[in-house]
Amino acid sequence: MADTTGRVAVYLDFDNIVISWYDRVHGRNAYGKDRQRIAENPNDPEVVERLQQAVIEVGAIIDYASSFGTLVLTRAYADWSSPVNAEYRSQLVARAVDLVQLFPAAAYAKNGADIRLAVDAVEDMFRLPDLTHVVIVAGDSDYVPLAQRCKRLGRYVIGVGVAGSTAKSLAAACDEFESYDSLPGVVRPTKTPPATAPAEPVIATKDTADTKDEKEKEKPKRATKPRRAQSAAKTEEPVKTDEQTEATQLLERALRLGHDKADADEWLHASAVKTQMRRMDPSFSEKALGFRSFNDFLRSRDDVAELSESGHERMIRLRETD
User: Fold this and answer.
1) pLDDT for res 152
2) Is residue 69 left, alpha or beta, with left meaning phi > 0 and alpha meaning psi from -120 to 50?
3) Which of 320, 222, 311, 212 is nearest to 269 (CA)?
4) pTM for the structure as a whole
């Protein structure tokens, strides 16, 4: 559980999070392709609909940051004259967010707020020595030096970024990293399969029927999958297999480290194992992998770990291999 007695400063690279989420919803580099159209025709019905589908839930970010303690200051950096960002001004002001205006020339680039945000954050840490937590809402690797400097100055650094658009180096530089996709209140985008054009009707004639029969005889018979297997193949896969594999390997490494410090057969507290996993990979999140709780994640890895649930305690150890 996060320390609710902390004093938290939140810095949002708003252009970064808006562009990253737009690309997450509509596909890679979608914002770059639509940028000119959005700027020239912001009231176009199709543009409005695409922007509406990629709306950022600002409240979800602010609420997550407040779980670490009292929000001392919250700043969002962007060109607020841009139609894309202007729609958020009222709800940001309602959440007591300080809007920092950037010139359009600086805000045009995706990393336009980097220098201003970093300078303000370092200045705030010296000006407000009672700050305990720093939340950086961005995904660029340019923020790695800022995260490292905050940690050296004794602050607990939390990163928030869009899955698929966040540099791994930034996640590793933070004490804790959370994907925007997994925050409570954020609806994950669902990919709709492309519509297939209906096949043109073929008028059967005697010649075509004979030709079809001959081709059917010449074709080798292929083994068909059972219906059950076919239906299972069509089930949705919310998380890539490689992400699940990486999470399993992360759990195994954390358990081995825990057993190295204790006896090989000793049971470890599940909370301590999760803490170690977050230290090794701050971007780890069982919710992002599709599990409601860490215990559900552990139960799904029963081939790697043994879970003991007695009372309120959850103990775990590495499963012995033959």
Assistant:
1) 96
2) left
3) 311
4) 0.72
